Amino acid sequence: MKKVDMSINLGGLQLKNPVMPASGTFDLFEDNNLPYDTKVLGAVMTKSIFLKKRLGNPLPLICESTSGLINALGTPGEGVEYLIKNKLPIFRKANQTVIVSIGGDGVKEYKLLAERLDKVEGIAALELDLSCSNNVDNIIIARDEFLTEQTVAQVKEVSTKPIIAKLSANVTDITKIARAAQRGGVDILSLINTVSAMAIDIKTKKAVLGNKVGGLSGPAIKPIALKMVWDVAHTVDLPIIGIGGISNSEDAIEFLLAGASAVEVGTAALINPLVMLEIIQGIEKYLGQQGYSSLEEIIGLA
Amino acid sequence: MKKVDMSINLGGLQLKNPVMPASGTFDLFEDNNLPYDTKVLGAVMTKSIFLKKRLGNPLPLICESTSGLINALGTPGEGVEYLIKNKLPIFRKANQTVIVSIGGDGVKEYKLLAERLDKVEGIAALELDLSCSNNVDNIIIARDEFLTEQTVAQVKEVSTKPIIAKLSANVTDITKIARAAQRGGVDILSLINTVSAMAIDIKTKKAVLGNKVGGLSGPAIKPIALKMVWDVAHTVDLPIIGIGGISNSEDAIEFLLAGASAVEVGTAALINPLVMLEIIQGIEKYLGQQGYSSLEEIIGLA
Amino acid sequence: MKGAKLIQVYAKVLNQTEIITNHFILRIFSPEIVKKAIPGQFIMLSAWKQKDPLLRRPFTFNRLFPKEGSFEILYKKVGKGTEIMSYLKAGDQVSLLGPLGNGIKFPQNTKKIAIVCRGIGVAPMLAIIDKAKEKGIDIYAYISAATKDLLLVKKEIKQKAKSLYITTDDASLGTSGKVTDFLEKTLKDTKIDAVYTCGSKRLKRHIERLKELYGLNAWVILEEHMACGFGACKGCACKAKKDNNHKGKYFLVCKDGPVFPIDEVEV
Amino acid sequence: MKGAKLIQVYAKVLNQTEIITNHFILRIFSPEIVKKAIPGQFIMLSAWKQKDPLLRRPFTFNRLFPKEGSFEILYKKVGKGTEIMSYLKAGDQVSLLGPLGNGIKFPQNTKKIAIVCRGIGVAPMLAIIDKAKEKGIDIYAYISAATKDLLLVKKEIKQKAKSLYITTDDASLGTSGKVTDFLEKTLKDTKIDAVYTCGSKRLKRHIERLKELYGLNAWVILEEHMACGFGACKGCACKAKKDNNHKGKYFLVCKDGPVFPIDEVEV
Ligand SMILES: Cc1cc2nc3c(=O)[nH]c(=O)nc-3n(C[C@H](O)[C@H](O)[C@H](O)COP(=O)(O)OP(=O)(O)OC[C@H]3O[C@@H](n4cnc5c(N)ncnc54)[C@H](O)[C@@H]3O)c2cc1C
Ligand SMILES: Cc1cc2nc3c(=O)[nH]c(=O)nc-3n(C[C@H](O)[C@H](O)[C@H](O)COP(=O)(O)OP(=O)(O)OC[C@H]3O[C@@H](n4cnc5c(N)ncnc54)[C@H](O)[C@@H]3O)c2cc1C
Ligand SMILES: Cc1cc2nc3c(=O)[nH]c(=O)nc-3n(C[C@H](O)[C@H](O)[C@H](O)COP(=O)(O)O)c2cc1C
Ligand SMILES: Cc1cc2nc3c(=O)[nH]c(=O)nc-3n(C[C@H](O)[C@H](O)[C@H](O)COP(=O)(O)O)c2cc1C
Ligand code: FES
Ligand code: FES
User: Fold this and answer.
1) What is the pLDDT of residue D177?
2) Is A132 labeled as catalytic in the residue annotation?
3) CATH classification of D222-267 is 2.10.240.10, yes or no?
4) How far is the CA of D209 from the centre of ligand 6 (A)?
5) Backbone dihedral angles phi then psi of residue A289, each to the nearest 5 degrees
6) Which fold has domain D7-100?
7) pLDDT for res A139
8) Hey, where are the domains in chain A?
9) Share of chain B above pLDDT 70, in %
């Protein structure tokens, strides 16, 4: 089988292959002990970082639903300075392409974060988490066209890096939000974040999660995410990173055929840390078997 | 264990218990051969009927996703006159409480249908399907506040029956749509309909369904539906029928605790036709064990 | 099945054999269902408790053993449901819903029938053959497959049929021609009262042509993706043939079929 | 486990016993994992291929058999994951990820340790006891349960411990008092170098008090809902104790624990 070209350029972000972790579902420590070499990934991605330290939501933070995971972490984290000092070096060692995901309470914080990170070496792109469905304290920017456009525009003003806007599925028409991000000057779209969800414990008669409501991820949401990627790919001329329930190479290929140029993998890699490696190999094999010589040939074919 | 009162009054619609089929997932024929007596149900519910005969979408119409079912039927049916003549007598024989679900291409058709059905005996309530996610030819009314309010108001003008508005999960803020329906004068809300979704066949590189996109139902969407019921129950003072992935009595109880006064069961009853009977018995047992004497006591407890 | 109540039961697996790679015969004990079953009907089966896979899977009766209270299905492993089934062994439990759909009916005074099938399409045929034998009806069998090994239950059919005609695409057994050419030859000098086919659009087309030429009674046994199997979801629609006065009509394969007069449905 | 690579393997079940109703000991062959495992660590296990249940389930090592290349887990059937596990039998395969978290470490020159646990909280204790025996350390065991039958692996502990104190809520064996009262009595005349507890908030609280009174080294083995088990999801956070200078700090049970100095964490 001939060698296929797995590389892809996403609006200025060059990846050697289209598979990377989803924000918040991947972390690296000094003693990176993952059972594979993370250099094989298209990129690595940090958990969404805020300016300041955040404690996150009350416990419990996660629960399982049928073929899904509901989390209400509330994006705990040590803040951007800690990230730059303690985490970034580890991420840079792990992969040549590091994407930093940023969160914020309001437009201004995104801008401050982007400004701060623009001065830092070794960051390939920023992903703006505009869509976390379980932060009680901040509004979901990606549910509003105006806020989305503004946030992206402000970030673009101060950042020289490719900017990815991460969209929410909890909207009436995701293509409108995508277009708003485009007007703001975004380079890449990623979708979807977790879907607003909850679980109730019928013994205690209370919400299971400390935050009561959370965000659903995993195989359950795959058909929803795929439809949104398809919709956006058919209306907005921007590269798309598909996210949502991708658990194997077949799922990833569905997203590519729907119009995504790359994919992020979250929940599946919590269960099988080797899954991204398997997905990369699976896509490569599929392309070869189907007689393609490059990844780009199948993007949006469906 | 003492006998518990399972009855419930939903804005004028009196049910002997809170469990009924979801529209489009239940049908009765001359030779009603279901393995239980449908008289035990809180109500029976027809598939959404249009004024005229509809062929529905191109084949295939359904496919499975992880813990979900995607359908793109396009609401085929013989039209309202056929329903009145051929189906209604069968439904009336099967249960004392018959709810007719109606669909329409635009506000006017809902009104015409409601007018026609108001003259027909033996219909306890109408459910307005404002939210089918796979009819190519008609817009989704429940994605728009104005259209929702208008449709309900027009129907209320001509109908003397309790009106249920069935809402869509594919909206930015379902409580706004719920309030719009309330402004229109609706008596009851039901939610959610299927969630917009799709699947792609990586062998043919085409959408699996004839209509390309469809609607996701089943256990996969349960946490999403529960969250929406919770949201609406906390903002709008109207009785709610909870729908979405309910597969056993525990699921049904979660919806009741979240604030639903009744539930509809769809996909689960396709797999296990006895499931509604099991759910009724399960709720009754739970209420007894927990020391309640009526269903109403647990509604909205969470 | 007018009026007969659907049965939903847990049933025990008696045994399972992999007859050739990825093709299995599963024998299940369920007197309630066998008692009512008619060849051509089917069951919805689940061998999983959790919600992935979600839906039951439809399988036709391969053989019915009313005396033993058991039946067999013949299936091919193609996806996650049939993969789970392939691990079933004696003593395991499956959940069944059935019998579903309309089975076959021989026209009055039937003396000779033909069965025409390809590959896994043979699944409902042994039950039909057994029924015919019981009634003293002669069976003419026409079976085709990609290759010799995929001529499933060939031996059993050979034992019971008056004549057996075989074609394989690679000519590994029989010729590589159209198996319906053999049927046409038979029709030239023999009156066949009913023809049953399953498993191939092409076979259906050829038999429709023969029907027109020879005025046959012919039925096709269809498959369509099914969520419920009992008429509730409308997911298994198939188009009625337009030139048959059924303009714009759909049938439900599960409820109106799966056995259809061959010229009434499009596939 | 600094630097040690995580291992993800399919492993064979050697056998499984239901020791009392709903409580099982499962023995698994996995030399790779046993070789690296330390008492107090855990594995994430999956005995399902489909996506329902979705996540692996965490289990601590009940006993390690490095020579045989196998280990045992002791678990209680509480939900759908453990129900599926309860059907496992010799020869079946499970998928494992591990060893995970930080195991126990005896302080230097440890002569005597105490284990204090309740119910299924005994799960990690036998492995700790075995390790202690290996090093010639004396074990004082304090176990409690709702009733006699729920004093799991009591016999094994009795064999290996220098003394064993038992309480049951219904006084079906031992007294119905607090098992930590026995510990306190021991502490009055015996120097215990390390105390390990698991399975009960109340026990933890009592031991914290004793720590203050007697200056103990004490550790608690925590449980929290886990999605990954290896520090990726941050779902298993537990609060650090405020009065311990950790204001507003969270630990990850999977990565920073599950063994914690008893006064560093809130539960
Ligand atoms: C009335 C009826 C009787 C049948 N009898 C038999 C039989 O006796 N023996 C046999 O081997 N098969 C039979 N089938 C087909 C059988 O139901 C499917 O092969 C089975 O459902 C696939 O399940 P799976 O989970 O293994 O595959 P999936 O993972 O669900 O899908 C794998 C492949 O099978 C196709 N498929 C899935 N469901 C169906 C379906 N309901 N009908 C047709 N194709 C499907 C999918 O499109 C896909 O290509 C019958 C189907 C019908 C409708
Ligand atoms: C590090 C660690 C080690 C553990 N070791 C053991 C052990 O050796 N033996 C043993 O019997 N159990 C142990 N547990 C608990 C065990 O993981 C859970 O009982 C199991 O995951 C339940 O799975 P289930 O699918 O059967 O239950 P589910 O259906 O998922 O849930 C049933 C009940 O179990 C609770 N539960 C679910 N997951 C967890 C979890 N991760 N931690 C605690 N409670 C949970 C749920 O809240 C619910 O009340 C351990 C947990 C952790 C975190
Ligand atoms: C435990 C957990 C934590 C997450 N944290 C973040 C986050 O910090 N920022 C973010 O943008 N998305 C976060 N997400 C969402 C994922 O990045 C992803 O969009 C979502 O999980 C859907 O993908 P999946 O189904 O592959 O998991 C988180 C998801 C999970 C499960
Ligand atoms: C096959 C199928 C057909 C449906 N047809 C209709 C319909 O005609 N009208 C309607 O309002 N909802 C229809 N629905 C949606 C259901 O009524 C219900 O809202 C949805 O399936 C979620 O519930 P469930 O998860 O219990 O199935 C249909 C769903 C399915 C699966
Ligand atoms: S399979 Fe549901 S109607 Fe035929
Ligand atoms: S379980 Fe995922 S971080 Fe601990």
Assistant:
1) 86
2) yes
3) yes
4) 30
5) -60, -35
6) Elongation Factor Tu (Ef-tu); domain 3 (2.40.30)
7) 81
8) 8-54+74-195+219-298
9) 98
The two tokens of residue A190 are 């990623």
Closest CA to B22 of B222, B297, B162: B222
Q: CA nearest C53 in D: which residue? A: D50
Interface test with A, best of B146, B202, B208, B263 (most A CBs within 10 A): B202
Write down the mean pLDDT value for chain A: 95
- Reading phi first (left if > 0) and then psi (alpha if -120 to 50, else beta), residue A174 is in alpha
Answer yes or no: pTM beyond 0.95: yes
CATH of domain A8-54+74-195+219-298: 3.20.20.70
- Which residues on neighbouring strands pair with residue A201, listed in sequence order? A206
Instruction: Please name the CATH architecture into which domain C104-221 falls.
Output: 3-Layer(aba) Sandwich (3.40)
Residue A193 Cα: closest atom of ligand 3? 19
Closest ligand 3 atom to A48 CA: 8
CA distance from start to end of chain C: 24
Contact predicate A48/A101, CB 8 Å: yes
What lies within 8 Å, CB to CB, of C228 at 6+ separation is B25, B270, B271, B273, C44, C235, C254
Contact D140, D170 (CB under 8 A): no
Chain B residue numbers with beta carbons less than 8 Å from the beta carbon of C41 are: none
Q: Choosing from A8, A22, A132, A177, which is the catalytic residue?
A: A132
Q: What pLDDT is recorded for position D241? A: 85
Is the Cβ–Cβ distance between A16 and A25 less than 8 Å? Answer: no
Crossing angle between the packed helical segments A145-158 and A107-118, to the nearest 10 degrees: 20
Q: How many other CB atoms are there within 10 angstroms of residue D185's CB atom?
A: 11
Closest listed ligand to the CA of A24? 3
Q: How far is the CA of D99 from the centre of ligand 2 (A)?
A: 17
| Contact across the interface for A26 and D232, Cβ inside 8 Å | yes
Mutate to test the interface with B, among A172, A195, A196 (most CBs of B within 10 A): A172
Residue nearest to atom 12 of ligand 1 (CA): C75
- Which of B30, B35, B66 is closest, CB to CB, to C8? B35
Q: Is A196 an 8 Å CB contact of chain B?
A: yes
Count of other CB atoms within 10 angstroms of residue B11: 15
* Digit-coded pLDDT (tens) for B99-111: 999 999 889 999 9
CA distance A25 to A270: 7
D210 vs B64, higher pLDDT? B64
Task: Count Cβ atoms within 10 A of the Cβ of residue B235 and give its class: 0-12 exposed, 13-18 middle, 19 or more buried.
Answer: middle
Q: Which residues are registered as beta bridge partners of C141?
A: C115, C164
Indicate which atom in ligand 2 lies nearest the CA of residue D73.
Answer: 8
Which pLDDT tens digit goes with each residue over A194-249?
999 999 999 999 999 999 999 999 999 999 999 999 999 999 999 999 999 999 99
Binding site membership of D112 for ligand 2 (Cβ less than 6 Å): no
Shortest-distance Cα residue to atom 19 of ligand 4: B193
How many CB atoms lie under 10 A from the CB of residue B2?
8
DSSP secondary structure, B66-120, as one string: TTEEEE-----B--HHHIIIIIHHHHHHH-S-EEEEE--SSHHHHHHHHHHHHTS
Residue D212: how many other CB atoms lie within 10 Å: 10
CA of A270 to the centre of ligand 6 (A): 9
pLDDT band with cut points at 50, 70 and 90 for residue C1:
very low
How far apart CA A262 and CA A19 sit, in angstroms, is: 6
Q: Measured from the CB, is residue A117 less than 6 Å from ligand 3? A: no
| Average pLDDT estimate for D162-175 | 91
What's the ipTM? 0.96
Residues of chain C with CATH 2.10.240.10: 222-267
Report yes or no: D49 at the B interface, CB cutoff 8 Å: no
- Number of C-alpha atoms within 13 angstroms, CB side, residue A146? 1
Predicted pLDDT of residue D168 = 93
pLDDT at A136: 63
How many CA atoms, within 13 angstroms, populate the side-chain half-sphere of residue D9?
16
